[in-house]
Amino acid sequence: MIKKVLIANRGEIARRIIRTTDNLNIDTVAVYAEPDSNALFVREAGEAVSLGGRTPLESYLDIDKIIRAAKKTGCDAVHPGYGFLSENPLFVNRCQAESLTFIGPTAEAMCLMGDKAEARKVAKRLGLPTVPGSEIMATLAEAEVVCAGIGFPLLLKAAAGGGGIGMRLLSGPEELAAAFTETRSSLRRHRFSPAAKSGSRGWRHRNAPPIWPGGTGSSFYGNC
After folding, report:
1. pTM of the full predicted structure?
2. Which long-range contacts (CB under 8 A, 24 or more apart) does 202-206 make?
3. Distance CA 10, CA 150 (A)
4. In this structure, what CATH number is given to the domain that contains residue 187?
5. How many distinct structural domains can be found in the chain?
6. Interhelix angle for 107-114 vs 89-97, to 10°?
7. Mind listing the pLDDT tens digit for each residue in 27-36?
8. Are residues 10 and 92 located together in one domain of the fold?
């Protein structure tokens, strides 16, 4: 039975988790970067721990800082919300090594589904319907051919990452070159491998994390 949860996220995502855990009589600990010191989620949590830093890399993406905060405050579980570390299997493994319950999929499931190109292959292999799209496109020239075949409008999406990192809506082919370059650059900034894939037709995006057998599922895991 989970008694105390550290929320490894911020903003409205953290507030939603706090509201639900309060209803379940579970204590909460918020962590925050310096710019968020007066944010609502910090005030609403049962406890709050400063991670220091002014950027995500210095705070919400720093696994060591988050684990130390969880241990320091006596938490027995970590809720990642979505985005940030929520799709990082290294974070899951670290939580398990520190005897912290990770509220979300297993590391194995993340490795399988975290790479969008591999996830697409798995879906096809299982006979699940998929929207028109591509495999990984390594060069702009390849992307131009593939995207022309799919048709516009489409989404250019990084194969790695999460939380919308590296996602671009393209209305026409004239927008492809700049979007392809920016997608690769954004992945480097967030320390992901710069690989891109196309092009689902349309412009709607949904994150719907599944509950995997063997993982710790939760009705408040989050979606957008």
Report:
1. 0.66
2. 202/131, 202/153, 202/154, 202/155, 203/153, 203/155, 203/169, 205/155, 205/164, 205/167
3. 37
4. 3.30.1490.20
5. 2
6. 170
7. 999 999 999 9
8. yes
